[in-house]
Amino acid sequence: MKPSGSAVIALCNPKSPTNVGAVLRACACFGHDQLVYTGTRFELADYYQTATRNAGDKVNRRRVNNIAAIKEPHQQLVAVEFAVGATALPEFEHPEHAIYVFGPEDGSVDQATLDACDHVVFIPTLTSLNLGATVNVVLYDRIAKQPPMDKDDTDQLIKTSRDVNNRLKVRN
């Protein structure tokens, strides 16, 4: 199953290898193969990243100087940030083609980038999630809001997604 539309993940100067690994795995798990980043810390974090199942090999990574400048006419920029006036993620309708912008673990999306965004959303939690968890929640929300799959497609997705040690079947 390939998700409809496209999603590019854009990270603002991420620093944590664990989070970079989790982001790469989220991209691979949810079927999105484009990741862009700003700043100088990504290369070190990417080198030490902890993604499993070769997720890093499935995701194209590219450094950019300005996230807003890479936006193409068919895409919308969506910042995920605790910003006054943001839309709660459960109420948000994802654009067909999005660039999701995430701030660093030790900061926020800069104001100029936030101002360039078409949408700003937040995850209604009592405190901030870490970067890897945030990307997973947003990509899950995107796929959860798509039309439901039929049973045959669901079963096929399960068979191709699970690892070799899982052969479980629901018995009614």
TrEMBL record:
It comes from Parathalassolituus penaei. GO terms for cellular component: cytosol. Belongs to the class IV-like SAM-binding methyltransferase superfamily. RNA methyltransferase TrmH family. GO terms for molecular function: RNA binding; RNA methyltransferase activity. Keywords: Methyltransferase, S-adenosyl-L-methionine, Transferase. This is TrmH family RNA methyltransferase. GO terms for biological process: tRNA nucleoside ribose methylation. InterPro entries: Alpha/beta_knot_MTases, RNA_MeTrfase_TrmJ/LasT, SpoU_MeTrfase, tRNA_m1G_MTases_N. Residues 8-140 form the tRNA/rRNA methyltransferase SpoU type domain. It comes from the Bacteria.
